[in-house]
Amino acid sequence: MLRWLILLLVLPASLTAEVVSLSSQNFEQTIQSNELVFVNFYADWCRFSQMLKPIFLEASEKFKDAAPGKIMWASVDADKNNDIATKYHVNKYPTLKLFRNGEVTKREYRSSRSVEALSAYINKQMEVTVQKFTERNALQAAHNPEKGTFIGYFNDENSVEYKNLLKVALFYRDECEFMVGIGELNFPGEAPGPGQQPKLVFQPSNKAINPSQVPFSGDFATYEYLKQWVADKCVPLVREITFQNAEELTEEGLPFMILFKKADDVNSEKVYTDAILRELPDQRKAINCLVGDGTIFKHPLSHLGKSESDLPVIAIDSFRHMYLFKNFEDINVPGKLRQFVLDLHSGKLHREFHHGPDPVTGNQAPDTEPPPSTFEKLKPQSSRYTILDKTEL
């Protein structure tokens, strides 16, 4: 506790110049004109914000000799600039977000709040993401089959297509690997000749239900198109929820639809995934489709009146209440799972818990309340960021 008080007193005035104060007037221009901008969203009344300030300042000093436009450390008073905080879903303090080429990265910083950890994080973010090879055996040896991998073949490193892939890879560096073979002579039959379209395929991990390669057939020169294709492959429509990533998933702000299953039950996961791909591809921004180990998450099951013997079970957690998909086998009925999700959005699920599925006539049935949300408890506290070693709800 004394360390941050001492730092506030002894830090030289020049150190404060390494962290730029941002407001509504200069925020957009700053994030657009720098490759990386590491932003500390804080509130003056927050004790934890005050503790972080001198640490953040000291870490920024280590990058004072970086090339102009490469990395900027910045801060935003979230109370005075509520429009910025609201836009980037900042509701706890302090929150650290990284902006790359004008766009906020998928994951905010959630690790240790020390000078060493902050510095190591930024150094890591400044590394080149794409692994480049000029020899086939080296590329094959470096491939990690346990991670989704994009494998490309280019003739020219200076092409617009190659530079676009470099930019896209920076955004999805934590989720997937990017490997590139360079040169027609080094990769005969793979790397394109002069004037030909580069090649890119996505190789799913060996854990994927469908491990077949998916080739890219679009326009490399259109950055947004390439980025969307990579995102669709790298961040699957159905993800696994664990106690390690649950807090991060809650911060995406979308309700959960979870298949609770036994750890070795591959079949129900495939049926669930196929149904989502078939019926809910347009709901990516409206609900998080997840798979969880029902043995680990037995407490949410108990709220639904279910136990491990009832697995597999599908339920929606709206962060207010939990709703049960009554019969797992109904997932095979066309439109049934989609209607379940649409009924959440329309409020029908909640209404039916109060009044039943039919219109109420005569004496109104007594109100009933759906089970309370359990995954809401995995959210960090509203006033500050917390890293908790959670093992149960």
Automatic annotation (TrEMBL):
Q: Mind telling me which Pfam families this protein's record contains?
A: Thioredoxin, Thioredoxin_6
- Show where the Thioredoxin domain sits: 11-127
User: Region Disordered: start and end of each range?
Assistant: 352-381
- Extract the InterPro entries matched here: ERP44, ERp44_PDI_b_2, Thioredoxin-like_sf, Thioredoxin_domain
Q: Which residues form the signal peptide?
A: 1-17
- Key words of the record: Signal
A GO BP term here is:
protein folding
Q: Which GO terms describe its molecular function?
A: protein disulfide isomerase activity
At the top level, the lineage of the source is Eukaryota
Cellular component terms per the entry's GO annotation: endoplasmic reticulum membrane; endoplasmic reticulum-Golgi intermediate compartment
**Any idea what this protein is called?**
Thioredoxin domain-containing protein
Instruction: Give the gene name.
Output: Cni-C30H7.2
